[in-house]
Amino acid sequence: MNHSIEIGTDTTGKAVRVDIQELLATRLLVQGNSGSGKSHLLRRLLEQSAGLVQQIVIDPEGDFVTLAEAYSHVVINAGDYNEREIATMAARIREHRASVILSIDTLEIEAQMSCAAAFLNALFDAPREHWFPALVVIDEAQMFAPSASGDVTDAVRRASLSAMTNLMCRGRKRGLAGAIATQRLAKLAKNVAAEASNFLMGRTFLDIDMARAADLLGMERRQAEQIRDLERGCFLGLGPAIARRPVAIRIGATSTSSRNGSHSLLPLPDAEPEDMQSVLFATLDEAPPRPTFAPEPAPLAAGELMERIAASDADEDDNAAPGNMPPAEREDVPAIDAEAVVVGALRDMLADPDTAFQTESVLYQDFSVRCRMQRLARPPLDLTAFRRRFALAKGGVFDPAEPRWRDLLGAAAALPDDMLAPFVLIARAAIDGEPCPDDDALGRTYGTRSPGRIRRLIDYMERQGAIVVRSDFGGRRSIGIPELGLSTEAE
């Protein structure tokens, strides 16, 4: 059986082939500056080998999700799952030999590294009976195996680097073959890059990167200049799965493309300078509307789907709602307590743990549907009022009219709306004499799973004078609210 694929052509037009069987045993490193064609090369490799080997792609930019349409890969949007669920899915991927694309483009860099580490560790820790051969493709590998510390915490960097090292150093015996791509060799940890035996080196301009690329290709330093002259989509290949001597390769065409496309020059708008000036400076006192983007559809529970179907028919019955009836027809219809409907809708929405991580437009649509299901002709709150009420509800304050919350709301008045929910949660704990909320609880109210964002949030609120953070020698944290003169219990 032929296990080789055509990756491109050499300078004479002869096809250059990659032995996938050999690649699984010897791993691959791709390097090239932004725009050199690395993603195109990886896409060609994935398309040509799709029928030969299981493929697992860690996609930090969302470039490869379009492969699913043509090659039946399963796309996992990492932002929809927690770390435990990601690890569970990774174990099932090994068991069932599914080809998947882990899309992490919606996460921040620290969360991307944590997610990739959990995913790779679960692949690596699969039981022996599930050690099937799999090609693990990772774009932007310098993010997950940095050669030096950066903006992320040391714990996250070490976890990600350890997972990448396991993949490249010890993954072969477990059937895992790493194919990693990086913009700069100098930013990629040496113990990760050194484990690859096959290399595809694209255009790069920095001397340190050219020198490392020349060393890996077995070229003399004076020959490294040709790496700078490579065209886009051209690479120098070397390795047991490619060629025994460096060969110049022009990567072949692909049948799919990135959903982001490429940026090409477009004609400039045809407008007179006076017209353009009037457009730019008109009504500056009014903020321009923010562009809205339709969220990707998420799986719905059967009950929620039935509610939304019912809501679509409610438009036809709006005239029958109490608020739209003629006065003579309202007499027999009991009055509806709009405030009770609002509180009930907020409680029901927050009963779903994933609600806190959804966008405002989706949340407001859900809120509107729930109000209409209670026979309110229109939502009692507009989007601005809903944003504040929902933030208060996430903090545990469902009825802001209660006298006990008056001082709390006064203390929160100076904070931005997006910080209202975590502040209210902390202040309510101080009022009730409860322990300080942990980072997970604050993250749910703030709408993030990133510990780094929570730390920055707490630092910001402390700099604003809204809170005072204390930590004892045992590492327990308590947070005081100066304006209320209260503090949470240590936790």
Could you describe the 3D structure shown?
This protein is of the alpha/beta class and 491 residues long. It folds into three domains: 4-251, 3-Layer(aba) Sandwich (Rossmann fold), CATH 3.40.50; 319-394, no CATH class; 397-491, Arc Repressor Mutant, subunit A, CATH 1.10.10. It has 19 helices and 14 strands. It has helices at residues 20-26, 38-49, 67-71, 83-96, 109-124, 141-144, 154-170, 190-193, 207-217, 225-228, 273-281, 302-314, 338-350, 360-373, 383-394, 406-412, 420-432, 439-446, 451-463, and strands spanning 4-9, 15-19, 28-31, 54-59, 74-77, 100-103, 134-138, 176-182, 198-201, 234-239, 243-251, 468-471, 477-481, 486-487. The protein has an eleven-stranded mixed β-sheet. Strands 12-13-14 form a three-stranded antiparallel β-sheet, covered by helices on one side. α15 runs parallel beside α17. The longest helix is centred in the first third of the chain and has 17 residues, at 154-170. The radius of gyration is 28 Å and the shape is elongated. It comes from Sphingopyxis indica. This is AAA+ ATPase domain-containing protein. InterPro entries: AAA+_ATPase, ATPase_Atu1862_pred, HerA-like, HerA_central, P-loop_NTPase. Residues 24-315 form the AAA+ ATPase domain.
